[in-house]
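Two proteins, back to back. First:
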Amino acid sequence: MNFILLILTFVITAPNVLVGEENDPRRDPAVIAVEKVIPSVVNIATETIVYTRHPLEDLIREFYDPFYRKRTTNTLYSLGSGVIIDEDGYIVTNEHVVRSASRISVKLHDGREYECDRIVGSSKSDIALLKIRSNPGEKFPAAKFAKDGDLLLGETVLALGNPFGLGGSVTRGILSSKNRRPPRENEPLDVADWLQTDAAINPGNSGGPLINLKGEVIGINVAVYREGQGIGFAIPVKLVSEAISEIFIPENLKSLWFGAKIKNGAGPLTVQSVEPLSPADKAGIKVGDVILGINGKFGVSYIALINELTEKGEKTPCELIIKRDDSKKTIKIQLTPEKSFFNEELIRKRLGILVEEINEETAINLGMPILNGLLIKSVDENSPADKAGLVKGLIINEIDGLPADSILRTARLIHTKKIGEPIKMKVIAQRRRGYLMEVRTFEVELKIN
């Protein structure tokens, strides 16, 4: 009798077990992980307008200008993938997917389509951030990043994306290898920096997420090794987070100087570095501070924090709620335009040269093709530049291997240097010989004032 009652109780209290709805053998961890992340995966379509030059264009212009004004154009189309990482519609993808695109559109897993804007991107990391043009208050499903370095060799991974433009798809494999070397400063990421998997990553998968069985993003699909078989690569989420921390900043968004680098990704928003004399430094922000909120808003994401700083930080002071050691405190900070500090005077103070950016008019006056660089207008006596042999009329083309393409960026680079620290310049000298222009390139080393 007791046995019969026990059976009846089991049937009444656990009908789903008998029916098998919760024990469907098909719903393994991979299926559940895909269901969690696939709403955040988008298909990206781009259009790039390329202006072409007809071989006889100069002749046509000579005889028919101003009637001949329109240049011939071609439109290039490409497809890729991306993943939403913030509910306000921010998408991370590969920079090479959207670079130079004239128009970007995305299609969500549920069929909705939107236009997108490229907000920031980096060729060095091959990471770009897009923003969906959505209605005010509209929210989107966002994927979560795994913790930095939370990787197991041989664990099951899933690559989601849009191969060959066929729409959302999933491939399965294992994590074959972690990145093989420590990051190298000022060098583009390459195969040795990426995760390797045997999950199929085909054209169109670029920019889509590589996820683990928890449904967390562990990488951004970047390439397939065409010479091999069954080998694909993804940028590790640690490097993706670092790239976003470096490019999605007030300095890049609106040329407003904040001066602190904050860790993006899983975990707390921790201050990683503070520039000397910056608004962050003057406000009293320290390395190791954890930002808990801004302007009364707590638990904000990295993107929401930077947006709040950028939109309000120039007009009025923002209030940052931080945790330092075991105490909480409020810090007021107001951002300033970068040009008010990073300008010609900073370069002159630290190097002893007055420079100007080379534009089309300057290049014509110099009698040379347009190029990126800074023209030296004067050199202060006994300055680092004078001691290195720099003179008026030379063109600074590179500083420490980076293009000297703007006064602002050059002043920024110089500001990071300590007194007495050397910098290397690539300099161009030109001299006219009759109808010919002699151009010579050489390198010099200066020590910062």
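And the second protein:
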Amino acid sequence: MTFRLPIAEAHAAKKVFIVGDFNEWSKNGNPMRKSKEGDFAITLEFPFGTFYQFRYLIDGLHWENDDAADAYMQSPFGSDNSVVMIDAY
């Protein structure tokens, strides 16, 4: 599964990490790569039939959701988390 944060949403970021329940919300566990165009991307593998909550952490300060998420769930902190659903198709 490839996650992509477009340059418009990255806010001129230097570093972006994908953070979610799949990595125990580790703020530095999954760094994303910056393209020449300024987008950030990462490819992760997940088992089929699962779903995960996640967000992007920009420069260690700013949280961003994924506009292309499959769904959103409310977090215990009063904001929404992005959700990715891993289907077998």
